[in-house]
Amino acid sequence: MNPLPYGGVFGGGGLFGIGFAMGVLEGLKPRGIDLSEVPLLGTSAGSWAAAATAFDVPFSVLAEMRVPSFPNPKPGLLASIAHEIFGEKTDPLIHVMACALPRLKRTILDGGKFPLSDLVAASSAVPALLSPHTIDGTRYIDGGVRSGTSVDYGPDVENLVLIAPLAGAMWGPFARLIDKGMHKEVAQWKERTGGKVLIFTPHSAAASIARNPKHLFDKARAIEAYHLGRAEADTYDLTFT
């Protein structure tokens, strides 16, 4: 069977990552790349972007969601917030990456089998900030613990849009480490699928608004990241390589 023409992989990055990814995605639509009905894999913040894209939930809605104080050990907290946006919706085109306890095994969760509100909660359960989320008897934590994007597990498509909010100009040596792992995973994905990739990472303007980890969870900075992500998509060279 021939691969689908488009797919997406969206990485983690807190509220900042949600804003940046949604800005890129909403900026790509007028340029002819609409990822609302294609296979998507999201990790942490990217799982929110994937679910929102699948159900045409604009960033303006995500920007109004409740943001808990951190750390917050209350079980089910993220799931309840996600449920306010996504309800009990499922979608077999959406998958998320989470880490299964106790061995932190990277695990792909299927949006056709479980509500996206549960998947988003599992993929975004940041250790030490939020409680693990249980699905079908297994406890999960943030998929970004093992990989910023897990693009090596990306869907089998001809052209893959990869959004990595913690790579590029972010945080010096940390971003270089993320970049190195991401490009290794991209090479593995290309070898497996034969596909091409278009990579979005924050340019210096976007990176400058999140200079430390606390900034990733600031709603005002997330809104700014959305506008900068959209501006990046407006002018980006859309050549897949």
TrEMBL record:
GO BP: lipid metabolic process
InterPro entries for the chain: Acyl_Trfase/lysoPLipase (IPR016035), PNPLA_dom (IPR002641)
Keywords on record: Lipid metabolism, Membrane, Transmembrane, Transmembrane helix
PNPLA domain sequence ranges: 113-152
Transmembrane domains' residue ranges: 6-25
Claim: Transmembrane helix is one of the keywords in the record: yes
Name this protein carries in UniProt: Unannotated protein
Organism field: freshwater metagenome
